[in-house]
Give the backbone structure.
Amino acid sequence: MAHGSRWTVGLTAVALGGLLVVLALPGPAQPQEAQTAEAPKRKNFEIPRDLTSELRVKAAYNDTHAFFRFQWASETANTYHDYIYFEGGKWQTTKGSSVGVHPQKLYEDRVSFLLDDGAVRYFDSAGGFITIHEQMRFLSNQAPAEEVRKHPYIGGTRKASDVRKYIPETRTDGDWRSVRSAEEMAALKRAGVFLDLWMWRSHRGGPLGYIDDNWVMDYRNSDEGKGAFTDNWDAEKKQPKFMFDPDKNGGMTALKWADVKERRLTAQDRYFLADDFARPFDPAREWKEGDAIPRRLLRLPDGSRGDIVGRGTWKDGQWTVDMARLLDTGKADDKALRDQRRYTIAFGVHKNYTGSRWHHVSHPYTLGMGTEADLSARRFTGDTPPWDAIAWTPVPLFYPGQVTWTYLTSSAHPGSREVLDGRACASCHPASLMGQYAVEHELKDEVRGRWLYTIASAMIFLAGLCVAGVIAARRRG
Amino acid sequence: MEPAKALHTMTVEMTTGMLVLAALAVVVLTWLALSGRSQSRLAGTADAVALWGAVIGTPMIALAILSGFRQWPFEAFMNSVIARNKIFTALVALGFWAAFLCLRFAAGKRLWNDNVLAVFALVLAAGGGAYLVFTASIGGTLAQKPSGFEELARMVVETRRTFALSTAGAISLIVVGVLAPIIALRLPRRKARPGAAGMP
């Protein structure tokens, strides 16, 4: 090869090599990588393994009831949730809500949705994001419990120690502290300015065939009435309140902690405790190391809280959950569903032993009762929906990270103007990318740092090419 | 149209027009150089087009970047994946074209008499041109008018994820940048090409 050609190849290779390096940008922190690097430094930080998933939905209604059917893939049926176990001569409880994946993998699966009839502003465009605000529970900047307890309404009236979902209408300036007056709040409730929240829980209520009925306004509220579960831990006596009734459980008073830990119980086994086969705890009984009792006592709900019934079954790697409720319960904490009307609905799924914000959510969808919509509920006659004749509506889900309504409407969000104009989040951000955006938002400081040093290294590379060009010109000129 | 948006649109259009023209001229020039026709009238015209296109277009990239920053609050730019990527690709395009101008000014018109330098100039102009098109394409997404080119580019690089090199990637790039002048220093001095004498 001639001298000149060799050098041509050499210089070209250098320039192209650099180009290729720049083009082969691997992108910022992958979830697992970020997890390792950032988790020890941050509060309430865990990036989930999967950032997207899919939920499939069907809806139907007859003259009296609305019906929903959900299906989603789940490697395992996670029906375990909170246990009390006897170890070291004393009763202990498993960890409750935790950051990310539950350390003992004892956390139930769930499917839920928020429902609105057009009363709550921005819900039809931004969905559940309108309920997420700075300093909420399990965000990295979670408000200190002490501060929340001192708040006259959240800590005082509500006796809460953390901030949970609320809609912007309930605050004067969006901040969780700026709660509106009791009169204003009552007026909002009367006007129906709240979101209905239906939640199937695989452990807490699910086994009895009940769906938790909640509503979101000033806080995440339970509907009026008795819930399908209650706490079975007597914090004062440090022991369970109820145990398995041996007369109704073949002599069994407790589960084996090893069976729970190793997840050996099936849907046919007693992995939950319900009041019709429980009896008050007997501390005088001779309890053995490794005995375990569910921390939640299931019971039949009543009042508005018990309006929704349903069942979940797990088979071949997927959950199928049915829900049904009166179209109009006549209760002030429910949204009535009416023939030919359109509503907004946004879904959420908790799986892989996660709770709180470590779920996958959807953009908002329109729900049409016999009308055209993203999810059209089919009218039928009879008692059972013709599920086989109704097509699934696929709903892409994504990890929402720590994106708050405060951020979305602030000047820090490039699309804040569009958000405040009521433009749908989905029009700029497809669900397939939302999880990735959420992670980049959650890791913004780290991503910015890496982006800056990528720019710096590219500039050094280009400066090198510039100097090389000048030198080459001098030598060859 | 808002004045800031209008200014950005103008600078972007000017930049794209000038530099695409310059890049095409460099392609023609390199072809002429490699086929031994660097003295032709066409080569003289193409050199003027490449030079003036780059001289006007390169500072316009900087102006386009500056006018771009007027579109949103700075914090919003720093929070947008696509905006971050656009800033990155615009700076890289600027760097390539700046390197091209350095080479052209250092070598003068004789640049096209030397195959080594001509190919090097082509690589720089091609890099600058490619990143410019990439930048404009990403800009289309920001302006809510996504382009087909970006979809093609996404097959190679995911533009909806912040461009960021791993530490090893960044070090490699710096090493290549440092090696380039060293390689240039080891270039053999050129023997005068017959017929090249007298070029300004």
Observations:
- Chain A touches chain B through 63 residues (CB under 8 Å).
- Chain A has a mean pLDDT of 92.
- The two ends of chain A are 22 Å apart (CA to CA).
